[in-house]
Write a structure and sequence with these properties.
By secondary structure, the chain is of the alpha/beta class. It has nine helices and ten strands. It has three domains: 78 residues, Rossmann fold (3-Layer(aba) Sandwich), CATH 3.40.50.720; 51 residues, no CATH class; 64 residues, no CATH class.
Length: 247
């Protein structure tokens, strides 16, 4: 199966982008391009990208393409060489949602859901991970060991869980307990496993050990990996630990 489009992140700061059109469609694109630092120019200028927000864009698109310019025609996916996604910005982390120009409304709805899901502190976590690169290589000289340590720490419920209350990467690396993967507590308000939140389901799916109260349904515990250890609440446990209790 082939990709409809190849997602790319292009640095536009200080670079020329052609913008044609008036009214709100053009204004919306202007705001986005200026936010990315683009220098907006007219049709005759030298640029690699163009955004066309005209009622009848065909002629302008043809002229620009003849010059080798990649074009986005607003509300005309059939004329687009590239599309502009809906964006969740957690600088330096950027999440982009595209539909190939088929439904801007769907992309916007997904962006709104992700805005609520992705913590505002995610960018800080990314910066702290960048800051510990040298220390991480020193502590884990083997690339595979580094990858596994980071993967475990960033799993659901781990100390660097990007969707949870992650500590700083510096604090994680300096932990005296061998980079303990962490622990998460789930309080169930229903015995129906389908009513687990996305975050709770992820925690169970990644757990090394599940500590549970006696009244927790087996159907919920079965959402954990088959090789995850299951123990009564209060037992000693190691690894990524998930505690499950009924409300």
């Amino acid at each position: 199966m082939t990709l409809h489009s190849l997602p790319l992140f292009v640095r536009l700061n200080g670079r020329a982008v052609i913008l044609l059109g008036e009214g709100e469609p053009a204004a919306a694109k202007r705001r986005l391009l200026e936010r990315a630092g683009a220098v907006l120019v007219g049709e005759e200028a030298d640029a690699a990208l163009a955004v066309v927000a005209l009622d009848e864009p065909e002629a302008a698109v043809a002229r620009l393409r003849a010059r080798g310019v990649l074009v986005n025609a607003v509300d005309r996916p059939d004329l687009c060489d590239f599309t502009l996604p809906a964006i969740v910005d957690r600088d330096p982390v950027i999440v982009a949602i595209g539909t190939g120009g088929v439904s801007a409304g769907l992309a916007a709805a997904l962006r709104q859901r992700l805005e609520a899901l992705i913590p505002a502190t995610l960018g800080e976590l990314a910066q702290s991970l960048f800051a510990i690169r040298a220390g991480l290589r020193q502590r884990f000289p083997d690339m595979g060991d580094r990858r596994r340590a980071l993967g475990r720490a960033m799993a659901a419920g781990g100390p660097l869980d990007p969707l949870g209350g992650a500590i700083s990467a510096e604090a994680w690396l300096a932990a005296p307990d061998g980079l303990a993967p962490g622990r998460v507590r789930i309080v169930l308000r229903s015995a129906d496993p389908d009513e687990l939140t996305l975050r709770e389901a992820r925690a169970l799916a990644n757990a090394d050990c599940v500590l549970h109260a006696g009244d927790v349904p087996v159907a919920v515990l079965d959402r954990a990996r088959a090789d995850a250890v299951r123990l009564p609440l209060g037992s000693d446990a190691h690894g990524l630990v998930v505690e499950v209790v009924m409300a």
